[in-house]
Amino acid sequence: MPWISESAPEILWPRLAELMRQTVAEARRRVCARPKRVLLLPPDITRAHSGVGRLTEMLYDELSAEADVHVIPTLGQHVAHTPAENRRMFGALPNEGIHAHDWRDGCVHVGELSGAAVSKACGGVADWPIPLYLNRMLMEEPWDLIINVGHVVPHEVLGFANHNKNYWIGLGGKETICASHMLAATCGIENNLGTLITPTRACFNQAEDQFLGRLPDLYVQVVLARNERDELVHTGVFVGDDLETYLQAARQSREQNITLFEEPVRKIVCVMQADEFVSTWVANKAIYRTRMAIADGGELLIIAPGLKRFGEQPDVDLFIRKYGYCGTPRVTAGYRTNADMQDLGHATAHLIHGSSEGRFKITYAPGFLTRDEVEGVNFGYADLAETLARYRPDELKQGWNATDDGERFYFIPTPSAGLWATRDKLMNRPGGFGGE
Question: What are the domain boundaries of the chain?
Fold first, then answer.
């Protein structure tokens, strides 16, 4: 059960500061009375809108007077922060105490989840083992206290983000990230989204129990929702060290962050913020979180003024340019024979997740990519200036809107903060994927 559990229509920053003080007090009581070396594990800048960077700064301030406190943003394979991005995300935290996770060369082997265990978790859909590699600093340096900080929200791989995703993806090595992403893609993105315990989550839960029991850790998880002023605000804080802490946060997110439609939507317009989303690797969250709501033959228009590349890493960027978002049948056929698809399994899974499977149109209005580049990966292209002038997103609130000439569309200002689906698609999914 959670050590701390609080839900409200809006939890303001003074109360959040008090809850962080309570978190540290509980950690001293339950984990280590006088911690001398502390590790904080927040998400990266693509989750900046959740405010968890500020919560990380609060925890640092509570602990740094008596402890040597270090921070590793749980990047996964995302690009490491610049010093300026660290300041924007974490405020006054000293840059020398913030360490970049290296998913290729900075990890150590901690074990393996067997193919039999994977097969059992997913009902036989996949049967390959998941090699388990984790950040070397996390696993080899001595820590008195480890605090994971994050935002629980519907997610395309784990059903909901955060909890031990911080470890196995956020601080995971290449082998772990690739094998687990292919597992999730094989199970089906639309089976994963909004599911409390997906097959991949079940595997990670088992791996945590089996290999991470010695870590002196806990989770600080927040839930956000839009208030009556259409502002994204904190509505839940859940602190603890067990699975139930995650489940309580995920259940609240399921209630507050999923928007259901009775009929499919013909057009959705989204904005991916320029300071958070510079690649389709992360901006495609607009596709993941809306795909279950869009009508056959409909359109998703993604306004992405910061978009300048496809992959987070140069080799992944070239990989996406090579294959494009070409649909599950072509990707899975290629995976069986193409060495680069097998080597970059997470990128192969990403191609599946980012395709509409020909069911609806995906159009990007990017800040930096050209028409040829966007159309080269099988997306539609729209001029950014013309799109901004037509839809005027700065003047819109989330929900139904219309252009001056009467085009009706549903607007989502922060698609990464929720999930949108028809009731039928969410509630009538194949058995084995929708429960807890």
Answer: 4-257, 259-417
- The structural architecture, per CATH, of the domain 4-257 is 3-Layer(aba) Sandwich (3.40)
Nearest to 348 by CA among 184, 162, 198: 184
Identify which of 216, 217, 250, 220 has the alpha carbon closest to the alpha carbon of residue 22.
220
Is residue 125 within 8 A of residue 186, CB to CB? The reply is yes
Give the CATH H-level superfamily of domain 259-417. LarA, C-terminal domain (3.90.226.30)
Three-state DSSP at 75 gives coil
72 to 39, 307, 341: CA distances (angstroms): 7, 25, 29
State the pTM of this model.
Answer: 0.93
Q: How far is CA 191 from the centre of its chain?
A: 16
What does the buried/exposed string (b/e) look like for 378-389 if buried means 16 or more CB atoms within 10 Å of the residue's CB?
bbbbbebeebbe
Same fold, 4-257 and 259-417: no
Digitized pLDDT (tens) for each residue of the chain, 436 residues in all = 999 999 999 999 999 999 999 999 999 999 999 999 999 999 998 888 999 999 999 999 999 999 999 999 999 998 899 999 999 999 999 999 999 999 999 999 999 999 999 999 999 999 999 999 999 999 999 999 999 999 999 999 999 999 999 999 999 999 999 999 999 999 999 999 999 999 999 999 999 999 999 999 999 999 999 999 999 999 999 999 999 999 999 999 999 999 999 999 999 999 999 998 999 999 999 999 999 999 999 999 999 999 999 999 999 999 999 999 999 999 999 999 999 999 999 999 999 999 999 999 999 999 999 999 999 999 999 999 999 999 999 999 999 999 999 999 999 999 999 999 999 999 888 754 445 5
